[in-house]
């Protein structure tokens, strides 16, 4: 009985010691995405958006396992149109937006000590390319969406790698006496995107009341530059 109790106590101590070393990492970044390879031949402007990641630092190791999300707008066009043929004196904004949403599983290798903490990432996931058109009120509340439609969308695979540098700017302790560290995060990634069909800026043409789509198809490689902030806690 005593031996069993001792084993249970040792197991509990081991579990507590492991979880006491558990650290998480999260971050938010401004993203600039530059099309590469075949994608660059069709899309000649960069995408701008936001991204973030969240990961779990495997205890007593340099590995962080988690996920990464990103959203980029790589084209946008707005025109004014009358609300309807029978109400020509009321005008609305018609905005077409080309965007990419990405989700990846992430494995990061990074030292857990020091002011300067370089890292390497391995990424595997998907890209969702879509083009939507929205009709918005031109009144004082110009964010009021009257109607919207998805003109084109497609899923494809995405994988790649990257690296960067996190620079420690603050270290403290929260109300629960748990330590946390804040960093400036600078990084770059190359993502190999699979084949997809998509629209780009200027790909929608309206003639005589009919809509014509100039659909493009290619691989969707991206070089993504990111700058933002991260926290270990």
Explain the overall architecture:
The chain has 233 residues and is mainly beta. It has one domain (25-232): Beta Barrel (Porin). It is built from 2 helices and 12 strands. The strands form 3 sheets. An 8-stranded antiparallel barrel has the order 1-2-3-4-5-6-7-12. The longest helix is centred in the N-terminal third of the chain and has 19 residues, at 2-20. The two termini are 39 Å apart. Mean pLDDT is 89; it is low at 1-22.
Notable features of this structure?
2 helices; elongated; disordered N terminus; two-stranded antiparallel ribbon; eight-stranded antiparallel β-barrel; Porin
Write the layout of secondary structure elements.
Blueprint: H1 2-20, E1 23-35, H2 37-42, E2 47-57, E3 63-84, E4 87-109, E5 116-137, E6 145-173, E7 179-193, E8 196-198, E9 204-207, E10 210-213, E11 216-218, E12 222-232
Antiparallel strand pairs: 1-2, 1-12, 2-3, 3-4, 4-5, 5-6, 6-7, 7-12, 8-11, 9-10
What order do the SSEs take from the amino end to the carboxyl end, as H and E? HEHEEEEEEEEEEE
Shape assignment: elongated
What percentage of the residues does DSSP assign to strands (E)?
over 45%
CATH architecture: Beta Barrel
Counting DSSP H or I runs of 4 or more residues, the number of helices is 2
Helical content band: 10-25%
Low-confidence stretches: 1-22
Strand order in the sheet with the most strands:
1-2-3-4-5-6-7-12
What does the average pLDDT come to? 89
Top CATH class: Mainly Beta
Radius of gyration: 24 Å
The overall strand count is 12
CATH topology: Porin
> Biggest sheet, open or closed, and with what strands and sense?
8 strands, antiparallel, barrel
Distance N terminus to C terminus?
A: 39 Å
Query: What's the number of structural domains?
Result: 1
Structural class, please? Answer: mainly beta
């Amino acid at each position: 009985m005593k031996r069993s109790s001792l084993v249970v106590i040792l197991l509990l101590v081991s579990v507590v010691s492991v979880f006491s070393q558990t650290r998480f990492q999260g971050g938010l970044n401004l993203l600039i995405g530059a099309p590469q390879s075949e994608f660059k031949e069709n899309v000649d402007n960069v995408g701008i958006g936001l991204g973030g990641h969240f990961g779990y630092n495997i205890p007593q190791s340099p590995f962080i396992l988690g996920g990464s999300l990103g959203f980029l707008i790589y084209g946008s066009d707005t025109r004014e149109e009358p609300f309807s043929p029978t109400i020509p004196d009321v005008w609305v904004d018609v905005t077409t937006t080309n965007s990419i949403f990405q989700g990846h599983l992430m494995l990061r290798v990074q030292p857990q000590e020091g002011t300067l903490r370089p890292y390497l990432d391995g990424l595997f996931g998907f890209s969702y390319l879509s083009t939507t058109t929205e009709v918005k009120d031109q009144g004082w509340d110009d964010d009021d969406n009257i109607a919207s439609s998805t003109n084109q969308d497609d899923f494809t695979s995405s994988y790649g790698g990257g690296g960067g540098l996190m620079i420690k700017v603050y270290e403290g302790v929260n109300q629960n006496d748990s330590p946390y560290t804040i960093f400036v995060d600078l990084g770059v990634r190359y993502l190999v995107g699979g084949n997809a069909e998509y629209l780009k800026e200027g790909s929608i043409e309206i003639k005589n009341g009919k809509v014509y789509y100039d659909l493009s198809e290619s691989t969707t490689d991206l070089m993504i530059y990111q700058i933002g902030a991260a926290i270990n806690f």
